[in-house]
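Working notes for the structural subgroup meeting. M.R. asked for a predicted model of this chain before we commit to crystallization trials. I am recording the input and output together here so anyone reviewing the notebook later can reproduce the run.

Input as submitted:
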Amino acid sequence: MEFGKSKPLSRRSALGGMGAAMALPLVGPTLSPSARPIEGKVALVTGSGRNLGRATVLELARRGADVVVNARSNRGEAEAVAREAEALGVRAIALLADVGDEQQVNQMVAEALERLGRIDILINNAGFRASSPIAEMSTEEWRAAAAVNFDGPFFCTRAVVPGMISNGYGRIITVSGLNAFHGRPNWSHICGSKMGAIGMTRALATELAQYNINVNHVVPGAYVAHPDLNRIPLGRVGLAQELANTYAFLASEDASYITGQTFHVNGGEVRYP
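Returned structure, recorded in token form:
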């Protein structure tokens, strides 16, 4: 063989001689690199008028997505976030809706589709977190948690999926909480509804994969305060930007072969196989 001219590798050689039964294609579809990998997509982030939801909206906007900012009742907060996103060069609208209310969700999605044309990315970020001991918990409290944490992702997903199927593309991410996995006193309604949403994620991932719709779940750890940082191997609470980066990755083509998974973003505080 002449110097400087490489001999093409066979699949067997490239795979270390594992045999034809183990042979895989050496290359896949070529994706164009871009600093704005979700440019032209439209993302709806529920509960995004402040804190982690706001950070997520702004990161999606930085990466090129038009965004729908949702809040339950504070229009001023939602509109402020939308203006921040617009300053990043994308279209942004603020829509009020209680995600636990089916009619309000349907109206929100219909308006988003009318004004922005499509919804490619849904991040079910809104959450209910009030505590109550089980012996004292009213049926209304139980249902209030289920409405936001379980019904909300269902209503929002059901509303956006027809458009995603038509477009042949979708990314759905539902957000849970670490307490749903190891339990927390007085949070049975919250832990129960959050775990239910994880089961729904896994079922939807198998149901919607045929339409190129990926469905995943993210479980944040501590992002505001923590009573004992020694329990976190990284020794600190998380940054809102770090969580937003996770959502943006899962919303992009970079995560095209990831579906039905649960991602723990907690600094190593709790580790699962």
